[in-house]
Amino acid sequence: MTKHDLLEHLAEGGRADATEIADSFGLTYAAAAMALLRLARQGLFHRYVDADDGRYFYELSKRGHARLAFFRHHH
Questions:
Q1: Under DSSP, is residue 64 helix (H, G, I), strand (E, B) or coil?
Q2: Which of 19, 31, 69, 75 has most Cβ atoms within 10 angstroms of its Cβ?
Q3: Which of helix, strand or coil describes residue 52?
């Protein structure tokens, strides 16, 4: 799973949590959570807590959309 893979996945799905990413890419929960947090810290994803159950969800940020456009144009 690459940064590009995660950006594409969130662009298609709108939002995701670490469990969904782990299941989609065949990763452990810890690996998925760390990858998502890393990209959130880079400003590519917005991270927020679901008020109902306390899970963290991630969505593409404006910067994430720009990075995805770059990947799509150059690959």
A1: helix
A2: 31
A3: coil
Give this prediction's pTM.
Answer: 0.84
pLDDT digits (tens, 9 = 90+) for 21-43: 999 999 999 999 999 999 999 99
Answer whether 65's CB lies under 8 Å from 11's CB: yes
Provide the token pair at 62. 């404006």
The maximal CA–CA distance of the chain, rounded, in angstroms, is: 40
**Phi first, then psi: what are they for 60, rounded to 5°?**
-65, 135
- Alpha-carbon 44 to chain mean position: 8
pLDDT tens for residues 51-64? 898 999 999 999 99
